Amino acid sequence: MKHALVTGGSGEIGQAICQRLAEDGHHVIIHANQNLKKAQTLVDTIIEQGGSAHAIQFDLTDFEQTSSKITELMQAHPVQILVHSAGIHQDAPLAGMSKAQWDAVIDVSLHGFFNITRPMMLPMMKTRWGRVIAISSIAGITGNRGQANYAAAKAGLSGACKSLSLELASRGITANVVAPGIIKTAMSEDSFPAEKIRQMVPMQRAGEAAEVASLVSFLASDEAAYISGQVISINGGML
């Protein structure tokens, strides 16, 4: 049984990823910062369904706190699958965006990736098997109005994972990015009415969180051992 850590595991896409990895037979460590109760509820659900999981809480934007938690976590078992799903929105046109809005989004998605990945690398390398998967967005490929901060953070994940894939290839570790388009969540339902989705998406529907989780599941498997350094879109044909 491999151990998988999912940041932002209490979010809707994160929850689907956690459940799928548990179904795949992994022990899932569900990270939360403010939503620990939600993460614990998901742990209980996974255990009821015959899986294995536990929740962990720390502030991903705090390098020292994150390093301490990861070091403590990996003393018991190596964590060989990392899915960085944590991310936030603070949308505004760049001309009116505050520095706090810019910093907050970059801190969680991009700085958070560094903070969580760095202390995991040497222990993972020692096992000579690993999977690093960052959840990006179509905004990181095409940009999006009012989301310069979010697009910059998600595009940064692509560059980081491409570089990481080169550094880790000889150790049996892959690093890839999954870039979803419009996925059916409570947030997207408010932003994308059905008619707008039909206009924007060639498949004329929003994707399901479970479909994103299926892609993550494949990338985390032995079958994906020769796929690394890639940005894989899942967006119903939008690009």
Would you kindly provide a written description of the structure presented here, covering whatever features stand out?
The protein is α/β, with parallel strands linked by helices and 239 residues long. It has one domain (3-234): Rossmann fold, CATH 3.40.50. Helix content is 49%, strand content 17%. The chain has helices spanning 12-23, 36-48, 63-76, 99-127, 139-142, 148-168, 186-191, 194-200, 209-219; strands spanning 3-7, 27-32, 52-57, 79-84, 130-135, 173-180, 231-234. Helix 1 links the parallel strand 1 (3-7) and strand 2 (27-32). Helix 4 runs parallel beside helix 6 (148-168). The protein starts with a strand and ends in a 5-residue tail after the last strand.
Brief account:
Helices cover 49% and strands 17% of the residues. With 239 residues, it is of the alpha/beta class. It has a single domain, classed as Rossmann fold (3-Layer(aba) Sandwich), CATH 3.40.50.720.
Percent range of helical residues = 40-55%
The count of β-strands is 7
Q: Can you count the helices?
A: 9
Number of domains: 1
CATH hierarchy, class: Alpha Beta
Order of helices and strands: EHEHEHEHEHHEHHHE
Name the CATH superfamily assignment: NAD(P)-binding Rossmann-like Domain
The class by helix and strand makeup works out as: alpha/beta
Task: Indicate the low-confidence ranges by residue numbers.
Answer: none
Average pLDDT level:
96
- Rg calculated over all Cα atoms: 17 Å
The main sheet comes to: 7 strands, parallel
The N- to C-terminal Cα distance equals: 37 Å
